[in-house]
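Appendix B. Worked example

We walk through a single record from start to finish. Start with the input: the chain for C1q domain-containing protein, Mytilus galloprovincialis, length 153.
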Amino acid sequence: MMFTFGLAFFQLMVYMATADCSPKLDNAVVEDLLTMLVKFKGSDNRNTSKWRDIPAFTASLSDVKNIDAKEIVKFDKVWTNNGNHYDPYTGIFIAPREGLYHVSTTLMSVSGKTLYAHICLNESRTVGLFPGTGYSEATANIVLHLKKGTKLQ
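Next comes the structure step. The output line below is what the pipeline stores for this chain.
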């Protein structure tokens, strides 16, 4: 397994301010954004319940974590998990169908530590991130064509 770290968003990128909001409010914000996206898309089918069919997840770590080389990060805070295709116990997202997926990840190294990470598909590296040492951040955005059953970690 390859070492990866970050937040992934599929077919949609949502930036959320977490502050002191309740999970119900955070989920309501994501649901509203997904509903607007479906309406904006301009499809003939304007049924807003269709946004629930979009495979999407937002997840994060709630605290600093020491990560070993080649370890898959298992995010302990799952904000959104449409379709439950992300498994927080394994840290793996499995594509439910073939299509284009937008993946975004942001990571930050801690003081005095160097961090290097990859987004991996079926254990093969794609884009890599190297934020540097000590409270430096890196962000990657990539659009990937995934086949049904592809594992993203």
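Two observations about the output. Helices lie at 23-40. Residues 23-152 form a domain with the Jelly Rolls fold (CATH 2.60.120.40).
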